[in-house]
UniProtKB/TrEMBL annotation:
Listed PROSITE patterns: HTH_LUXR_2 (PS50043)
Residues annotated as transmembrane: none
One family name in Pfam for this protein: AAA_22
Organism this protein belongs to: Couchioplanes caeruleus subsp. caeruleus
BP terms from Gene Ontology: regulation of DNA-templated transcription
Domain HTH luxR-type stretches: 692-757
Protein name: HTH luxR-type domain-containing protein
Molecular functions (GO terms): ATP hydrolysis activity; DNA binding
Length: 757
């Protein structure tokens, strides 16, 4: 709402300063302002505007990794640390937005300083409650929204000029669709905006009470609550006191069991499910059977809110509300116990996911772990900082499939390294963590580190009692050899591991071995069909157990071998069948990216060059999203380079790059449609919507009036003069109208209004 002056200031400051920091109190709207500025500045930065969200990050060592993920950095070609990011951004004219840095100021400042020193065309926009305090930084304090002066009596028309009132009306309309500012409630709206001092978060929290209170009751209770605020920090800014007062008020409205649950729920980061709340928060005096009703009460009181529409109900709380609860939790001396229970719950979730990986639950488990990424970070931090080494080692290793399939390789390596740095137990949990860390290093192309970690795992395993874990060591050793192109070494290792897994009936290991064994046999032989039997066995075994990921991987590998054998139709069919995982697992990109690549190779072989280049572009987009690439796998890198060279030679560099870029621009659904050669539903055409009543489209009375003046052909200045408002206010109304109607020009507004008359 509004913020035109601040947006202009951000644009101007970024032209003269390479680092601009938006400071201000929590809840004042720094994040929304930064995002809006980024959208408006896209054309000024041809190499992109990138947003890295740090609010849910707690570990300063992961700041660079998180930024790398936001940038789509390929971990195999660029290390996700400050020097690696500096190399990646060195020649790019880009804007990097770092959001919510106040709890990671030192790490953020170090990273920004390194990037700005090495990247002359980079600009950085930061939001933080405090400045980074490095050379060249320009700061802009984000003020609360504009409110009427204390002695100013407003009419409904006057209120439209104030940003706080516009926000209040917008949010009130969402709660009560028939809400409008009238002569009867105008004074109350004015007083409420003044009492809340224009703080956006405070306004949203207060207006949410309209579900149970009138405006007058909200104002009365808020005013009464401020009178009680006599023991707060006198040197704190008044707007922070009022926000604290508002949350204090919500706290006072809660019964004691609700308050206790609120404080315990603050341990969660990024949201939580009911089952997790029951396991983590239900200990005396809260009984497990009381949690559901207490959560329902906290939802009703707008302390927490439900998000998403998945099969499991999920809840979140605003960050400032969560922080408030955390302070209360610490004051109640319950934080250590709640943190331990939180860690135990998510460690057990990770273990369950690992044990049940090769099962019909696999797709749901992958999605659930992805949604719990922020909680996993908090729990892992507790594990490596406060739990026994065996707990931390098992926790980090149990997430092996999550790290691999989702492309979170550097983060997985980070937690494994920290767990391995704890006092080393002579236990299988350490041997397992060593071999998982070795496997990640292999995929990232760090062969020396992978070999060193595996050597330590083998030495430790030799001193331990028998375990199914022992069979995984030759699998990783074989993969290290296969990635390097040494198939002669890899094959007997895979065969050894396969025999061990079958003897112990370890389904996940058997699937892994069959997939890589078939791929290695086919790649190492003059007859690629030598690998067909193992890959078919992997596919069939996966199907019989309801497993989807290894089935998809086996089909992709089969498509590569068929392509090498000249069976283009068979290769295409296998790759397309592999892509069905995209309809089962939301946001799965690893095997989808592989299969798009394989279909690109097939298309190039049959001289469908435009299709091939587009598919390579679509695959590249997937790999960038995962922060990974094919470069660490020698044979695949060779195939990719050969196909790319052929396409460039036949199409020419310019035509190839144009087709490649069209593939990069495809949505996931469009890429899948292109791959399986299915005509996708057309995107909605731009243009006027079907005639509808202005009120049905969310236009306020003043916006309807402005729309009519736009249709008459008046300029913003003329509209401002006609309505006796500031020109900036008129401009804001016009922007809102265009946004709500989905138009891009004033002429569209005029044509649409004419069609309704």
């Amino acid at each position: 709402m509004g913020r035109r002056h601040e947006l202009t200031g951000v644009r101007r400051m970024l032209t003269t300063s390479r680092l601009v920091t938006l400071t201000g109190a929590g809840g004042v709207g720094k994040t929304r302002l930064a995002r809006h500025a980024g959208l408006e500045l896209r054309r000024a930065f041809p190499d992109g505007v990138w947003l890295a969200e740090l609010a849910e990050l707690r570990d300063p060592d992961l700041v660079a990794v998180t930024v790398a993920e936001a940038l789509g950095v390929r971990e195999e070609s660029v290390r996700p640390d400050a020097p690696g990011l500096a190399t990646f951004l060195a020649d790019r004219q880009a804007l990097l937005i770092l959001d919510n840095c106040e709890h990671l100021v030192a790490a953020s400042a170090d990273l920004v300083e390194t990037l700005l020193r090495a990247c002359p065309r980079l600009r950085v926009l930061v939001t933080s409650r405090q400045a980074l305090r490095i050379a060249g930084e320009a700061t802009l304090t984000v003020q609360p929204l504009s409110v009427p002066a204390a002695d100013h009596a407003c009419t409904p028309a006057d209120l439209a000029r104030y940003e706080a009132a516009s926000l209040l009306v917008d949010r009130a309309t969402a709660v009560l669709p028939g809400f409008a500012v009238t002569e009867a409630n105008c004074a109350t709206v004015t007083a409420l905006c003044q009492a809340l001092e224009g703080m956006p978060l405070a306004i949203e929290l207060a207006v949410a009470r309209l579900r149970v209170l009138t405006l007058e009751e909200i104002l009365e209770r808020l005013t009464d609550r401020y009178r009680l605020l006599t023991s707060g920090a006198r040197n704190a800014p008044a707007r922070q006191q009022t926000l604290r007062a508002l949350i204090d008020w919500s706290w006072d409205l809660c019964a004691e069991p609700e308050r206790r649950l609120w404080s315990r729920l603050s341990v969660f980061s990024g949201g939580f499910e009911l089952e997790a709340a029951e396991q983590v928060c239900a200990f005396p005096p809260l009984a497990p059977e009381s949690i559901l009703d207490l959560i329902a009460s906290l939802v009703d009181k707008s302390v927490i809110f439900r998000v998403g529409d998945g099969p499991r109900a999920r809840y979140k709380m605003l960050e400032v509300v969560r922080e408030y609860g955390a302070v209360r939790l610490a004051g109640a001396d319950e934080q250590p116990e709640v943190a331990r229970r939180h860690c135990d719950w998510f460690a057990e979730l990770a273990h369950y996911g690992d044990v049940h990986w090769a099962s019909p639950d696999q797709a749901a488990l992958m999605l659930r772990l992805r949604r719990e990424q922020a909680n996993l970070r908090v729990a892992l931090e507790h594990a490596v900082g406060s739990a026994p080494p065996e707990v931390a080692l098992r926790f980090a290793a149990d997430l092996q499939n999550h790290w691999f399939v989702r492309g979170f390789l550097s983060e997985g390596r980070h937690w494994l390294d920290r767990a391995l740095a704890m006092p080393p137990p002579r236990h299988w949990t350490r041997a397992r963590a060593l071999r998982v860390a070795s496997w990640i290093a292999c995929v990232q192309g760090d062969q020396p580190r992978a070999s060193a970690l595996l050597f330590e795992a083998k030495e430790l395993a030799a001193t331990l009692p028998p375990s199914a874990e022992r069979a995984f060591i030759p699998v990783v050793e074989g993969n290290i050899a296969m990635f390097a192109g040494d198939h002669a070494t890899a094959l007997p290792l895979f065969e050894e591991a396969l025999a061990g897994f079958r003897a112990l009936d370890v389904r996940t290991g058997e699937l892994w071995c069959l997939a890589v064994l078939g791929l290695a046999r086919g790649l190492s032989s003059a007859s690629p069909d030598d690998g067909y039997a193992d890959l078919t066995a992997c596919r069939d075994l996966a199907e019989s157990h309801g497993e989807v990921w290894w089935r998809s991987f086996a089909l992709w590998a089969l498509s590569v071998l068929r392509w090498r054998a000249g069976d283009h139709a068979g290769a295409s069919a296998a790759a397309k069948e592999s892509l069905t995982i995209g309809t089962v697992v939301e946001d799965e990109q690893f095997t989808v990216g592989l299969s798009l690549e394989a279909l690109g190779w097939v298309a190039a072989s049959v001289r469908r060059d435009q299709r091939a280049a587009q598919l390579l572009g679509a695959s590249d987009r997937m790999w960038r999203a995962m922060h990974a690439s094919l470069t660490s796998f020698r044979a695949l890198r060779v195939f990719h380079d050969e196909v790319t060279t052929q396409l460039r030679a036949r199409l020419g560099d310019r035509a190839f790059e144009a087709a490649f870029d069209r593939g990069v621009a495809l949505t996931a659904a469009e890429a899948m449609a292109l791959a399986v050669e299915r005509v996708p539903a057309p995107r909605p055409a731009a243009g006027p919507p079907a005639p509808a009543h202005l009120g049905d489209l969310g236009l306020t009375p003043r916006e309807r009036e402005v729309a009519a003046l736009v249709a008459e052909g008046l300029t913003n200045r003329e509209i401002a003069a006609r309505l006796v408002v500031a020109q900036r206010t008129a401009e804001g109304h016009v922007e809102n109208i265009l946004s709500k109607l989905g138009f891009t020009s004033r002429a569209q507004v005029a044509a649409w209004l004419a069609a309704q008359r």
